[in-house]
Amino acid sequence: EAQVTQNPRYLITVTGKKLTVTCSQNMNHEYMSWYRQDPGLGLRQIYYSMNVEVTDKGDVPEGYKVSRKEKRNFPLILESPSPNQTSLYFCASSLAITGGIAFFGQGTRLTVV
Amino acid sequence: GIQVEQSPPDLILQEGANSTLRCNFSDSVNNLQWFHQNPWGQLINLFYIPSGTKQNGRLSATTVATERYSLLYISSSQTTDSGVYFCAVGVVGGGADGLTFGKGTHLIIQP
């Protein structure tokens, strides 16, 4: 079954404690991205990757890092989380940058206290 | 960047009613998708529809690319249809913009 898998689904952490949200896809997609969803602001892109070792900033990259060492994995790293990073996060993948259907993971609800 | 506007922002209907949700976008797109976000927060793919018409059970969608809008039709609504419906578009351009989402339509189906 084609899917994008994020872990964990829920996470409560404290300010400053480094964390990683994993994302894996099984469709051999080149393009992967991370979004955050906030009330009143909708979904906004954090980072994207067009292929292995190729990443770039989206609309709201501050406070986040990503890496793409393998095609299937695209982890999101928060080196020093802050309360304003409390949000619902989604990983997505698609065959191409545009023009192909995007599949989304189940979401990760992160709370930073 | 491209602007995506969805209407109405909120919609309350009785079970069995029909509804039409609209998505307007400000530029040419080569990707348009409709999603349903359920009460648990999951984004469910409904349609990939950069142009034309598609149907899936009680749901159907039409995109008129030349006029820059898309419509999502829900017939014979059920309480499980409640949630937020998002339209998202992708454009071909100098940068890799990914998908730009509208603010969504919050649909409540009452029994």
Order of helices and strands of chain B: EEEEEEEEEEE
Low-confidence spans of chain B: pLDDT under 50, at least 5 residues? none
Helix content of chain A: under 10%
Query: Helix amount of chain B, in percent?
Result: under 10%
Number of strands of chain A: 11
Low-confidence stretches of chain A: none
Gyration radius of chain A (Cα, Å) is: 13 Å
Largest sheet of chain B: 6 strands, mixed
Name the overall outline of chain B. globular
The proportion of strand residues of chain A reads: over 45%
| Count of DSSP strands of chain B | 11
Chain pair forming the biggest interface? A-B, 25 and 23 residues
Span between N and C termini of chain A?
A: 36 Å
Cα-based radius of gyration of chain B, to the nearest Å: 14 Å
Characterise the protein shown here:
The complex is a heterodimer of chains A (113) and B (111). Chain A is mainly β and 113 residues long. Chain A has strands at 4-7, 10-13, 19-25, 31-38, 42-51, 54-57, 65-66, 76-78, 87-94, 103-104, 108-112. In chain A, strands 2, 4, 5, 6, 9, 10 and 11 form a seven-stranded mixed β-sheet that branches. In chain A, strands 1-3-8-7 form a four-stranded antiparallel β-sheet, with no helix packed on it. Chain A starts with a strand and ends with a strand. In chain A, 40% of the residues are buried. The mean pLDDT of chain B is 92. Helix content of chain B is 0%, strand content 57%. Chain A binds chain B through residues 31, 33, 35, 40, 42-43, 45, 48, 50, 56, 58, 88, 90, 92, 97-104, 106-107, 109, and chain B through 30-31, 33, 35, 41-43, 45, 48, 50, 86, 88, 90-92, 96-99, 101-104.
